[in-house]
Structure to design on (147 residues):
């Protein structure tokens, strides 16, 4: 008996091809889901960074605001009374926490034009179940404050 030549694929070949195709599709779906989660985390990090930058602008305005002492600003008060590690501002809004800590000063008199206050701004928030944070090291100069 002579075997007839067959044209087409065997069942095993079809099953192997379907298996390889399914693995490829599932891998692409998993990568898409992972990519989406990274996009979400990066969006939340960008939001935290904007909050940290906004805090720097708020601090500039706050330092310039006058105190009830003639000719003094809050810059003078923090410059004279601040100690390393002191909390200058602690704010919690929803799931985001902003913490501003006094780091150090440069200069001997807050009235000098080269007087500076260095601060660390740390913003913490949630992205899903992950805790994320952003931080900025910030300097406030007495140049043009209160004058």
């Amino acid at each position: 008996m002579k075997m007839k030549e067959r044209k087409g694929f065997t069942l095993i070949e079809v099953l192997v091809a379907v298996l390889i195709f399914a693995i490829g599709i599932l891998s692409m779906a998993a990568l898409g889901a992972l990519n989406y989660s990274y996009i979400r985390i990066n969006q939340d990090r960008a939001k935290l960074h904007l909050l940290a930058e906004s805090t720097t602008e708020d601090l500039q305005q706050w330092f310039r605001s006058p105190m009830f002492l003639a000719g003094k600003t809050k810059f003078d008060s923090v410059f004279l009374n601040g100690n390393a590690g002191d909390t200058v501002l602690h704010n919690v809004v929803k799931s985001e926490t902003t913490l501003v800590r006094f780091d150090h000063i440069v200069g001997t008199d807050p009235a000098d034009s080269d007087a500076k206050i260095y601060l660390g701004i740390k913003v913490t928030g949630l992205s899903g179940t992950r805790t994320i944070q952003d931080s900025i090291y910030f300097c406030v100069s007495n140049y043009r404050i209160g004058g």
